[in-house]
Design goal:
The protein has 285 residues and is mainly β. Helix content is 9%, strand content 30%. It is built from 3 helices and 20 strands. It has a 7-stranded mixed barrel with strand order 12-19-16-17-14-13-20. Strands 7-6-9-4-1-11 form a 6-stranded antiparallel sheet, with no helix packed on it. A 5-stranded antiparallel sheet has the order 2-3-10-5-8, with helices on one face. The radius of gyration is 20 Å and the shape is elongated.
Length: 285
Amino acid sequence: MTAGLTVVRAGALTTVQDSGRRGHAHLGVPRSGALDAAAMALANRLLGNDPAAAVLEATLTGCALRADRAVTVVVGGAPCPVTVDGRPVAWGAPVRVPAGAVLDAGGVRAGVRAYVAVAGGIAVDPVLGSRSTDLLSELGPAPLRDGEVLPLGTPARRAAPADTAPWPAPPTALTLPLRLGPRADWFTPTALHTLTSATYRVSQHSNRIGLRTEGPPLERASEGELPSEGMVLGAVQVPPDGRPVVFLHDHPTTGGYPVIGVVPEAALAAAAQAAAGTPVRFTLG
């Protein structure tokens, strides 16, 4: 393991992410990990990395990195301009970055989160078996800072060739399948109808903890207090303002607001790339 990347521009929020810390919820530790796990896996596969090797997740404004040694990089996820020392290079495909050159992943053209994968993976020290940054519990490395040096792992001898890479486009409208429960009975029949028939929009206050929505509030049938109980990835919690919040990877492991339903994990990658203002529909399924 040797130093490989110096952060020239950290961007609005760039974090190290892998497949996360599974199995620690009973200790109050969220899973964390890449919000768009499919984008992370594809970028890694194009480099011959393990699909769960640690990458950089850059939010909205991208990041810039100087290669202290020659490296091969893939920038994927949300589409963005990519340059090496100011010269345009491919997005979504392996790019060779010479020693001393600066790779710049610019602001996203659509979506929210770009992923920068490097041959060998980002090799910061793992915490509880993961290199992921957890913004809620502050486990793992802190968000990137200008001037920071990131260690890299050893690249694979050869990456598998790929003529094309199927990068999904960020959603212009988001449809989230919903399984009702465990606290759907805390809401009126009208609220359940509203949830599955109204169009919500992604709030600008969304983050790695949860996708917040704007739209019609959901009326509760019970006004009592709910003791804190376990929360799962994809839980749709309804806070006092009545607007649903879809819990993402840095979500709390317990909560006291009722969960009206759960969105399956497979649908959450699209949620991770839904920009503020994107229409959201919940469908039973």
